[in-house]
Amino acid sequence: MSKPKLLLVLCGDTFPAIREQHGNFDHWFIQAMERPEMEIVVWNAHQHHDVPDISFIGAVLTGSPAMVTDRAGWSEALSGWVLECIGLGIPVLGVCYGHQLLADALGGEVDFQPGGREIGSLLISCSSAAADDPLFSKLPQSFFAQLTHAQSVTKMPTGAVLLGSSSRVGCQAFRYGEAVWGVQFHPEFSRDVMAAYINIYSGDMSQRQRLTVEEHLHDSPEANQLLGHFVDYCLTSESSG
Hints:
There is one protein chain. By secondary structure, this protein is of the alpha/beta class. About 35% of the residues lie in helices and about 25% in strands. The chain has seven helices and eleven strands.
């Protein structure tokens, strides 16, 4: 009997300098999500590759250096595919770019973040609705997460449930329906990867801002656990279905 498959949708690649030292997005996600009873299949959607002809128990959309508002052909095609998955009841988790793509596809709005890039190890505060959420109910009321993004979800899709916010971004996490989640933060990032991103963007920061961001770097174990909670949800839903 073949193992159930989780589809990891690669929406872009990290910077070459980070990739050389720490690996790429798919490497970080697989490290956090791999299970002996499940197979992870990577689909390079941003390279216009066709979706694998497989059955899968869930899909995870990664981050990307691209912007949803650029309306790239591969991204627009991916939006349509995601809506098909949602219509079929397949669990979906979007991260950073994936979070924004989900919101946009479902009728929300995405735009550049007022005040510039949000970056660093920042505190996420859960909403009251998080207590009843299959994923966020397993997390504390507030936790540190790694963030780097120039755009954000400025308006959630109609019917979406807000799950988390940060001091600057009102929508750090949402759920749509029963099994569709978007998170602006990066649960796949380690502290070292976050530090590498801060170094990449250091030229865009004042010396004071960079020192502040670097001094407040934290590990983010609770945020990292979110990917495992999503895998658990997919495996449980598959076995009960």
